[in-house]
Write a structure and sequence with these properties.
Order of helices and strands of chain A: EHHEEHHHEHHEHEEHEHHEEEEE
Distance between the termini of chain A: 36 Å
Shape of chain B: elongated
Strand content of chain A: 15-25%
Oligomer: heterodimer
Radius of gyration of chain A: 21 Å
Distance between the termini of chain B: 48 Å
Largest sheet of chain A: 4 strands, mixed
Structural class of chain B: alpha/beta
Number of strands of chain B: 4
Largest sheet of chain B: 3 strands, parallel
Number of helices of chain B: 2
Strand order of the largest sheet of chain A: 5-4-6-13
Order of helices and strands of chain B: EEHEHE
Number of domains of chain A: 1
Strand order of the largest sheet of chain B: 3-2-4
Helix content of chain B: 25-40%
Shape of chain A: globular
Helix content of chain A: 25-40%
Number of helices of chain A: 11
């Protein structure tokens, strides 16, 4: 396999680490040496030549090749079986509606949340159970890290260079969650977003940090969801009023109460859309009176419509916890869902 | 011994070129492209005044992007060729 990348020789594993750290090619943690063999194995897994064009970054016109994604994926700790997820996530991130440059350069401290659906979760051992959103398993940890290393090395998304975040959040190291499709009666997120049943997929969301909540003192769906809606209202008051793709992470304990009441994801989205809204005058309650102006009675909703809500079943089996993951900046960036290795909209060529 | 690969593009991204510096601002048309954030308002208002009063600028054209996190809208970019210079401002 012919690579376009320059190669370096290093005498030891520690020499490799110093080479990569001193060039600013890491996230600060040790990396796995991207040897020719390891990179080749990733490319063979997805049956792509090194110069396969994954896409053109829309703002600066940067060509993203499979070779460069594979090098960074290996550095992050990815095995070849993880690489299709990295390729698909990057393909999704390069869709214009995702606004990758804005989301990753912003002062707003956004990370790219990766949500996995479909059989690939089980094939790669991605867990949607205990400690979801963090170090729940190897697959989600290394896939999320690969996304960040690709941003650093391919888009120069280094702090103070292209990444102008005032504050980051821990998800900027790795931010990937697999939906717990086996332990819920709900449709997977990807099916709600048009991916056929049985296909694996990736959803990317330009996202803030998770805002964890707890309500262990009711079994009523409306009361449980009111806690989620309140957290969204808090985000709208304290952070950003812009409507967009919010994600709700609902672990099993709260999920079972909702499911027992017959609530589907669509029902949840409809309820949340009604409840997650604030008056502009509420900004005066949190020190932002200067921007209320004469629009205090204006009502702002967290989403433009219920279908903007991404409801994800994930989290450990016990505990009345949940999380709201807010969008980076409302509808400036939209969540994108793509199937892995499948062309859903493709039609056979017409003769 | 490890043989390892460079994770960066290795080549500089395609970039535009700066226009030649103007000899004078007198009688020129200057375009402002604002990202639309709060901080741009006072800044551009003040800059407009300085350019006209102290440097003899003939016209100042102010435009605001529809999305402050995205590149300037195509219709704004299309106007640039009618200007002698551009000030692109962030309001953070």
């Amino acid at each position: 396999m012919q690579f376009a990348s320059r190669s370096y020789s290093a005498d030891s594993i520690s020499a490799v680490q110093e080479l990569y750290h001193s060039n600013g090619w890491t996230d600060g943690l040790p990396i796995v040496p991207p040897t020719r063999e390891a990179v080749e194995a990733c490319l063979e897994w997805v049956m792509m030549p090194p110069d396969q064009l994954i896409g053109i970054e829309p703002v600066r016109g940067l060509a993203i090749t499979a070779e460069k994604l594979a090098i960074n994926a290996v550095m992050a700790g990815c095995l070849p079986m993880h690489f299709p997820v990295v390729v698909t996530a990057w393909t999704a991130m390069m869709q214009e509606e995702f606004l990758m440059h804005g989301a990753t350069a912003s002062t707003g401290g956004c990370a790219v949340l990766i949500i996995l659906n479909g059989p690939i979760r089980l094939e790669i051992g991605a867990s949607g159970s205990f400690n979801a959103l963090a170090n729940s398993d190897r697959a989600t940890a290394v896939i999320g890290r690969a996304i960040r290393l690709c941003l650093i090395n391919l888009l120069d998304d280094r702090p103070g260079v292209i990444d102008r975040s005032t504050l980051g959040h821990p998800g900027k190291f790795s931010y990937c969650v697999a939906e717990d499709e086996e332990d819920t009666s709900w449709l997977p997120l990807a099916e709600h977003r048009g991916v056929p049943k049985g296909a694996s997929s990736v959803t990317v969301l330009a996202a803030g940090a998770p805002r964890q909540l707890m309500n262990e003192w009711t079994t009523k769906p409306e009361e449980i969801l009111e806690t989620f809606a309140a957290e969204m209202r808090a985000n709208m008051r304290h952070y950003s009023i812009h409507p967009g793709n919010y994600a709700l992470i609902i672990p099993k304990q709260l999920r079972e109460h909702l499911q027992a009441g017959g609530w589907t994801k669509a029902d949840i989205a409809t309820f949340i859309h009604e409840r997650a809204r604030i008056h502009r005058r509420e900004w005066a309650d949190v020190g932002k009176g200067a921007v209320v102006r004469d629009r205090g009675d204006s009502v702002y909703t967290a989403m433009d419509s219920p279908d903007q809500l991404l409801v994800v079943a994930a989290g450990g089996p016990a505990g009345g916890f949940g999380a709201v993951i807010p969008p980076w900046l409302g509808n400036k960036s939209y969540a994108v869902t793509l199937p892995i290795g499948v062309c859903v909209d493709c039609e056979p060529p017409k003769n | 011994m490890f043989e390892v690969l460079d994770p960066t593009p290795g080549t500089a991204p395609p970039a535009g070129q700066l226009a030649p510096r103007l000899d004078t601002l007198e009688g020129k048309t200057i375009g402002f492209i604002s990202n639309g954030k709060e901080g741009t308002k006072g800044f551009f208002k003040h800059l407009d005044q300085i350019l006209r009063e102290e440097y003899g600028v003939a016209n100042v054209v102010s435009r605001t992007k529809s999305n402050y996190s995205a590149p300037a809208d195509p219709h704004i970019v299309a106007e640039i060729k009618g200007w002698d210079a551009v000030v692109s401002g962030l309001g953070d």
